[in-house]
Every structure is written in C-alpha cells, then in structure tokens.
C-alpha cells in the first residue's frame, strides 16, 4: 500500500492521478462499520478495474476545531490506523493534514479539489459521512456537488444490539472497562503498543513480577482495574493478568495510571522491548487492600481466573 500525506492546498504535481474508488472517513479504530465501508470500496474497484483508496484525516477534527483540554487519545493512533487499513488490501491511503483552512472548504470545493482532481471515479462512505465546512455536505448532496463527474455508494448503517457500531461507542465501552464488548465491535481484541519500562520493583517482592508498560503514541487506556490480557514480544504471545491503576494499597503519587502485566510462565528480561498488549476480559475493579497479604491472595485469585479464561 502507498501512503501519501496531503497538505492543504494539495500539490497536484505530487499525485499519481489514476482512476480510483475511494472510501472516505476518519476511521478511528477501523471497526466493523469502517471495514464494511472500506471493503465496499475494494469490491467496487475490482468491478470497475480501478485502484482502491482510502482518504482519512489527521489529527481528529475535534482536536483542531474544539480546544481540547488534554490531548485527544485514539483507538488507533495514526501508525496503527495505517497498519489496519493496509491489512484490508487497499492500494493507496491518503492522509489529509486536518487544519482549520481545510475544514473551511465549502462542500463544493472539497468535491472539486479532493475528489474530482484526484480522479476519484466512485466515492464510498457510510450513511452519516459529511464533508465541507460545518459538515454541510452529506452523501445525499454528493451527486449534486459531483454533477455526473463521479458516482457514489452509501454504505448502510452497521449495527450491533440495535445500535450503530461507532468509534465513540467503542471509546465509551473502554472507559467502562467493557473490553469483551469492544472485541465484538472491532472484530478483534483491542490492543495498545508500548515499551517495557522500570517499575518500583515491588512486584518481585510480593511474588508477582510485573512488566510495566509505557504506552507509545496516544492510545486510549481502558478503565482502571484488572484484566486478562495477552502480551506480544518479538512476535511471541504470552498470557497474563494486568492491573491498570494507581495501586492505592501503596503510597502512589502518579498522575497517570500505571499498566503492569504479570505473565504466567515467563522469566525473561524484557526491559526496553516494544510490546503490544491485547485486552481480552475484565476481571474486577482496582481496590485498596488493608495489607499486602490480602492483596497477594486477591492477585492469586485474579491469576486463576485469567488462566481459566485465556489460552496458556
Ligand atoms: C493482577 C494484579 C492485580 C493488582 N491489583 C491491585 C489492587 O487491586 N490494588 C492495588 O493497590 N494494587 C494492585 N496491584 C498492583 C500491585 O500493588 C503491584 O503490582 C505491586 O505493588 C508492584 O508494583 P511495582 O511494579 O510498582 O513494583 C495489582 C497487580 C497485579 C499484577
Ligand atoms: N456503523 C457504521 N455503518 C456504516 N458506515 C459507518 C459506520 N460507522 C462509520 N461508518 C462510516 O465510516 C466512515 C468513517 O466514519 P467515522 O470515522 O465518522 O466513524 P464513526 O464510527 O461514525 O465515528 P464517531 O463515533 O466518532 O462518529 C464514514 O464514511 C462513516 O459514515
């Protein structure tokens, strides 16, 4: 897959202008609804004998148009989104740098400059896709702005339990710790990438050595609590139990929750390694224990539970 970064106004000299079927959207998470849109574009491209492309935007419009107090977090920060879109079999991914100036384009300008000039012969998007300033262009107005210069497919709403599969719904589920439901909507377990860093080394003394994971990029971290997880190190996958939180049993002044993973059968030193962490099941809330023995008893139960849920 070719990945092409575009800045507004686009420099058309840089583009290979071949006829293409293009899927349009932000696509955070590349969930099942997004997959339906991108697959529809790939199918259409096969039918028409053109390339299949995706146009996405970065950063998220909300980050640019509304002042976010904290930097916004993502289900798939850009490198992850690129990986997932590539796996779907797209020929070209266009990443438009989302700025206020780009957001100010009228719907007609967006269609002229970003679709027609890029030789998009067919545009594919979901029923609720909007384009142009204040989201005034919709899939219903697209034929009007296109004036017979391109055709379009509207992908109908994909639902799960009578509700749209959406990035915002998945974000909400992660903030509630509902990682099993997230798997359903993504079509695979949610994962974050990170690096193994030094912890306070207390884990070893209580019989549960843990790898502390420092997330890379701006991944959304599920709600604090204990989870059954798998950790992938150098293409090898290990099962374990993970605590995300503030370790209230001990004195802790961290602002961000720490992510600690205890792997069941593992005695390698992986400090500094890049890892990915997949969130399979939620086990319980994080608690403040009266003493370390009670914490140890509980962690043993967590471990048993996670072992019964996961392949070892
Ligand atoms: C499966 C698991 C569950 C945990 N649950 C809690 C908890 O409920 N409350 C708490 O204060 N700490 C909890 N911890 C964190 C331990 O306190 C922590 O692993 C230990 O203090 C080591 O910390 P260190 O890596 O900073 O040395 C849990 C750790 C694991 C691995
Ligand atoms: N459940 C769905 N069914 C069909 N199309 C969808 C679905 N979800 C998103 N799309 C389409 O996928 C593209 C990308 O959508 P977008 O990035 O806005 O995702 P979203 O899940 O709707 O996000 P958010 O929850 O932030 O609104 C758009 O064309 C959109 O219409």
TrEMBL record:
Write out the GO MF terms: FMN adenylyltransferase activity; riboflavin kinase activity
For the Riboflavin kinase domain, which residue ranges apply?
Answer: 185-311
**Keyword presence, Oxidoreductase:** no
Keywords, alphabetical:
ATP-binding, FAD, Flavoprotein, FMN, Kinase, Multifunctional enzyme, Nucleotide-binding, Nucleotidyltransferase, Transferase
Quote the EC number.
2.7.1.26, 2.7.7.2
Q: Which Pfam families match?
A: FAD_syn, Flavokinase
* Keyword Nucleotidyltransferase part of the UniProt annotation: yes
Give the metabolic or biological pathway: Cofactor biosynthesis; FMN biosynthesis; FMN from riboflavin (ATP route): step 1/1; Cofactor biosynthesis; FAD biosynthesis; FAD from FMN: step 1/1
Checking PANTHER family in the record gives:
RIBOFLAVIN KINASE (PTHR22749:SF6), RIBOFLAVIN KINASE/FMN ADENYLYLTRANSFERASE (PTHR22749)
- What is this protein's record name? Riboflavin biosynthesis protein
Species for this entry: Halalkalibacter alkalisediminis
At the highest ranks, the source species' classification is: Bacteria, Bacillati, Bacillota, Bacilli, Bacillales
């Amino acid at each position: 897959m070719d990945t092409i970064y575009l800045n507004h106004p686009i420099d058309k000299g840089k583009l290979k202008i071949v006829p293409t079927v293009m899927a349009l959207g932000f696509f955070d998470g590349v969930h099942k609804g997004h997959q339906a849109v991108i697959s529809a574009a790939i199918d259409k491209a096969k039918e028409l004998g053109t390339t299949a492309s995706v146009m996405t935007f970065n950063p998220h419009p909300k980050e640019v148009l509304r002042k976010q107090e904290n930097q916004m977090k993502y289900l798939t920060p850009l490198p992850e989104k690129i990986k997932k879109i590539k796996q779907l079999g797209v020929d070209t991914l266009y990443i438009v740098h989302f700025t206020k100036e780009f957001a100010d384009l009228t719907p007609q300008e967006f269609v002229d400059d970003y679709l027609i000039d890029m030789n998009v012969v067919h545009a594919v998007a979901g029923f609720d896709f909007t384009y142009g300033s204040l989201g005034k262009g919709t899939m219903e107005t697209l034929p009007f702005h296109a004036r017979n210069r391109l055709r379009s497919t509207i992908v109908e709403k994909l639902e799960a339990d009578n509700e749209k599969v959406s990035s915002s719904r998945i974000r909400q589920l992660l903030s509630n710790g509902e990682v099993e439901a997230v798997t359903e909507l993504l079509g695979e377990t949610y994962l974050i990438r990170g690096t193994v860093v030094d912890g306070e080394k207390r884990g070893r003394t209580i019989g549960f050595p843990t790898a502390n994971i420092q997330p890379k990029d701006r991944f959304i971290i599920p709600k604090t609590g204990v989870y059954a997880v798998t950790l992938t190190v150098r293409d090898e996958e290990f099962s374990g139990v993970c605590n995300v939180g503030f370790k209230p049993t001990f004195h802790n002044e961290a602002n961000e929750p720490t992510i600690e993973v205890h792997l069941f059968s593992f005695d390698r030193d992986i400090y500094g390694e890049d890892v990915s962490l997949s969130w399979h099941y939620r086990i319980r809330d994080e608690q403040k224990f009266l003493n370390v023995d009670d914490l140890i008893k509980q962690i043993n139960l967590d471990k048993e539970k996670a072992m019964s849920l996961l392949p070892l």
